[in-house]
Amino acid sequence: IDESTILVGVDGDDYTIADTELEYDASTNLLSYTPSTPWLDGQLVSASLDEAQDIYGYTLAMPVSGLWNVDLDGIVWMETIEEAHSSTGGSSYDMLDSFLTIHFKWGDGEVDSVMLIFDGDTFYVGMGLTMDDTMITFDAADAGIILDSGVTYEMEIIGKSVCAFSLGDWVSHSVSLYSTNIDEYNSKLPERVQLLPNRPDPFNAATTIPFVLPKNGDVRMEIVDILGRHVATLIDKSMDAGSHEIVWHGRDDRGREMPSGVYNCRIIVGDDAKSQRITLVR
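^ that's the sequence the OP posted. Answer follows.
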């Protein structure tokens, strides 16, 4: 890009590369804007790239613009590994096989961009990495990763806050993972029952619901509609501690197809109960 041709509009004011607020890094093609007066948390900011031309003379066909809410909370990561448990901060896990799906959440802030570094290789959205409004999921199988037994793998999830205009706003979270075929799972069980995100969601024909039981006991799992009315019983029996999953085919107890909508999956184990939303799209 010929930086002398760059024209950016922010909240109605125009800026060129000659202004101190605007900076362009040709090595990374990163255009950064730093406000002269700090933005306030929750402030609505409009910005647009109005003009730009590359070194061959090709110009921007039309302005590129957007609106952002300033979020000064930043990102606080939390990960859930399906064979293990949830936690915050740096963590390590023993995995029993080569199947690995990790769900990353964040407690504060909103995530705009994300990448994951696994054993030295970088993965972006579409490369085993998916992202929605509340969660980022990494599926090792989709990324073509096969874990070897007896190996410690290092991974780092890196996210960029919404309305972050510089590399300094990227926040990372590291996880150490030991892959083994030795049955060490029972020592890694969570203290409470865990109901993990179903996949896929939204779903059409069927969705798989993973969950982790901290101990042996009676388990009841059911689907209810948004009004709390019973739709289907998925589990009602005694089960062993550990990782499990169940498939719901979008039908009620009589086998009738349920209409599109938001439903709640609820699991009850003794005095412990968890629920989460599931979206059915016909």
